[in-house]
Amino acid sequence: MSTATLRTVLGNYPHTQALKSAGLPHDVVAFDFVEVAPVHKAFAPMVREAAYDLCELAIVTALQAIAYGAPIVLLPAVVASRFQRGCLVGWEPNGIPRPDALAGKRIAVRAYTQTTGMWVRAHLHEDTGVDTADIHWVTQDPAHVADYDDPPYVTHVARDKSLADLLREGTVDAAIFGNDLPSESGFQPVLADASARDRAWWATHGFMPINHMVVASQQACDASPGAVRAAYQLMKDAAERLDRATDAPVPYRFGFTALRGPVAYTIEACQRQGLLPRALHVDEVFAPAMDLLGHDGD
């Protein structure tokens, strides 16, 4: 039996380490891991050029790519999730805006399509009723999917200043950060009870907000379907090897059954925010992977 090598981008997480350290060898698939830091720099090459065979990808980018017909296959594999409300911060010396008074304010985010920004907007609507279109969004990066154009309530500014700089100087009233969340004491969450609200949300919905899933290129699926199937199973096995409390939130999740509800919820949030050019359904989103994985996808 021949072994296919998949050019792969995956972040460094506890649930990917066994895979990346070759601790789970397989006779059908091998991995040529490409380190990209930060990992979001791999997203545009993946959806625009199919630069990798297997790639971690933000869920908003993946859904946009599917809607625009990019040749990718979304696998039922979540590798990164995060509670998001604490990512919306203000600069205390300028005053922290009230969550229910954000209409008409300027909020900075790296890109309007950034998945963390999508979740923060969804939570703001849930918690306060503020509509996405009633806020002025200030961004620095375009979408990873080149076909997408930002809505008219989004302004693009140069990258000569960081989001933190824009916040300090008062150009914006609040900003959304991801893994670059500033630790300086002057930066404070806009939602003072963000952690409690996030835990309550998890107790209600049963999943952490999805940040990154895994996609395969259509070319890899056509050329080496067995290798992609084996890669999915190895990612799932690596996560299942971790010890964890069964009732605790975890940042990874696998399987069509486990992800059908969370992905459907995410699609609806994206559609409400003008992030998708057309309506999507979870059946359409997962259909190529279901054809590839069959029952093994659960």
UniProtKB/TrEMBL annotation:
It comes from Luteibacter yeojuensis. SUPFAM superfamilies: Periplasmic binding protein-like II (SSF53850). This is 4,5-dihydroxyphthalate decarboxylase. The lineage of its organism: Bacteria, Pseudomonadati, Pseudomonadota, Gammaproteobacteria, Lysobacterales. Gene3D superfamilies: Periplasmic binding protein-like II (3.40.190.10).
